[in-house]
Amino acid sequence: MSDDFINHIKVIGRGLPLWAQMAARIPFLFLFACEFLMRRFHRRKNLKSSRCHTISIIIPTLNEAANILSCIQSVSVNRHVCEIIVVDAGSTDQTQVLARQAGAKVIVHDKPIENGGGRGGQIEAGIRAATGDVAAIVHADARLPGHEIDRMIAVLNHHPSIVGGAIGCRFDSPLRKFRFIELANDVRVAFFIVSFGDQVQFFRRQPVVEADLFPVIPLMEDVEFSIRLRRLGRCAYLFGNVCVSIRRWEQKGFRNAAWVFAEVFKYLVKRFWATPDAADLYRRYYQ
């Protein structure tokens, strides 16, 4: 049994009572078995893909002076990171200054949301400017450990059929209610392959650029991209330890989380027959 498999199992349900951990891990064991068989099948097909050596970290920001230095420092020491690109939406604080001082390349992308603005436009601009074999989207309030970057590169090189994926996150709070949210996040991505932005999304950069795959929408860009990415190949979910702030939960409360999950569900349903209005959703979320 591989160490990576054991580490996956240990992460699932961590922090919950033992009985809850054991119950939560049963469906994932079935999922891992299916994934193992799928990998053997794709290995037989002898799929070819270029090896990955470098990674571009893309950080979308807006008034993140309190977080940007710690975010950049968490990724800057890894040997695979060739550049850190901060795409700023027009901050009025010291975000841009601090990012440059920390060695990041800063791009200002402050277009209106109706014309390519918002987080989707920021990230797409960063992808276009990047040069790494792999791109990873990291939110400013997240901390991405270096060993997780090594795992990204390793899974893409060991499994050529995988085009990208996401990494599991853990909240910076000891409260048990956040352990249940972490477990729900693991279930959503592992079984339904729909990842959010705080679960660091990573991918082979060149195929995404060539297919013009990243959605230039102000909100739900992470959900939409996780769906589109499957057009290019298989997606992996790495049960990991990206540390994410609980600040939005503190600011907006758990009722806001219920609203977000409801809107995500409606977005996924509506895209079967129409293009959801992400700009309208952006206005309702922030106003």
Written description of the protein model:
The protein has 287 residues and is α/β, with parallel strands linked by helices. It is 49% helix and 17% strand. The protein is built from 11 helices and 8 strands. Strands 3-2-1-4-7-6-8-5 form an 8-stranded mixed β-sheet, sandwiched between helices. The longest helix is centred in the N-terminal third of the chain and has 27 residues. 38% of the residues are buried.
Quick rundown:
This protein has about 290 residues and is of the alpha/beta class. The chain is built from eleven helices and eight strands.
Q: What is the strand arrangement across the widest sheet?
A: 3-2-1-4-7-6-8-5
Find the structural class using helix and strand composition: alpha/beta
Shape: globular
Distance between the termini: 50 Å
* CATH C-level label of the largest domain: Alpha Beta
| CATH fold field value of the largest domain | Spore Coat Polysaccharide Biosynthesis Protein SpsA, Chain A
- DSSP helix count? 11
SSE map:
Elements: H1 3-11, H2 18-44, E1 55-61, H3 68-76, E2 81-88, H4 95-101, E3 105-108, H5 118-129, E4 134-137, E5 142-143, H6 146-158, E6 162-171, H7 176-192, E7 201-204, H8 205-210, H9 221-228, E8 234-244, H10 247-270, H11 278-286
Parallel strand pairs: 1-2, 1-4, 2-3, 6-8
Antiparallel strand pairs: 4-7, 5-8, 6-7
Keyword list:
2 domains; alpha/beta; 11 helices; eight-stranded mixed sheet; 287 residues; Spore Coat Polysaccharide Biosynthesis Protein SpsA, Chain A
